[in-house]
Specification:
Length: about 375
Amino acid sequence: MKTTLSIIKADIGSIGGHIKPSTQLLQRVNDFLKKGVKGIANDFFVSHTGDDIAILFSHTHGVGYEKLHKLAWDAFIAGTATAKEQGLYGAGQDLLKDSFSGNVKGMGPAVAEMEFEERPNEPFVFFAADKTDPGAYNLPLYLMFTDPMYNSGLILSPNMAKGFKFVIMDVSYTEGDKLIELNAPEDLYDIAALLRDNERYVVESVWSRETGEIAAVVSTTRLHNIAGKYTGKDDPVMLVRVQGPFPATGEVLAPFNIGHFVAGFMRGSHVGPLMPVTMNSQVSFFDGPPVVCALGFCVHKAKLTEPADAFDHPYWDYIRTKVSRKATDIREQGFAGAAMLPYSELEYGGIVKKLEKLEPKFKVKKEVKAGKKK
Ligand code: F6R
Ligand code: MG
Ligand code: MG
């Protein structure tokens, strides 16, 4: 039986700034889905990470199913009405188009979907991150699918011996989806050469070369490519299938103990370490640090179990302390150098205006030839 998992997520308003959605807003989205889901999806689960609400659907209609996208869009519209009633900050922020037109892709919400033949038991991990962008998953995906230092199954299990295929998107191209396919391990250095640039090249999906099956999928939206201006960071979601021909859950989680530096943080314009957090966490210090949650599920006959909150364990408290230290360290240098993103990635136009105003005030110093009197 073929099952589809779809995550559709959006920031439609939050309390106290860009911290977290209100309970009433989450309730409204949940109630709306409960009423409308019959015949469209077999199951759904709503959670939030920072100010973003993610809906995980399981169903049997394949990716890009119009009725499901419409249901999610309408649930976000209904939620936005509640956000407005409550006076929440940034109500409807990620809903960039006025009316629904077949698919929420390109309309603001982030989407990650995969269809597969269900195994007798089908475990997977749902990831959602806030205050960062899709390139934040580049390094963890590289390590979990190609590096035996993180994925011991690459040397210990016969099921992963052929490695994995990476489909990578050039997200600076806005005319359509510009993709390249590269195979690990033989194209490893080419994969690394692309993935080092988190803002331009983003893993779109990963496939098992043993079975040909899909292993992982990432939302690859660039909000400012859609809106032409700052509308918030493209807080990304991801699905990763685990066990058997795929990495074990623990191998998928392992790279998140690095707390690697990603783009985002305050005003989507800084560099900060990615902190693994529990389900329904908020952000705090300097509108961050960038956070990611991981929920393990099993899906059976397109029905979801309850989630296992994978970063809710004492081990990750230790990592959170380490990441807090990294966040404090980089924040100590404020706007200087590596702490703030390069000009092309700054999410606010204010600095552009500032530099335009300053430009005519620059004077080129006249060169005085040696031996000549002034
Ligand atoms: C980052 C984010 C926040 C806001 C910041 C200013 O993704 O959401 O850091 O950029 O709080 O918000 P505005 O511009 O809405 O006042
Ligand atoms: Mg926001
Ligand atoms: Mg957000």
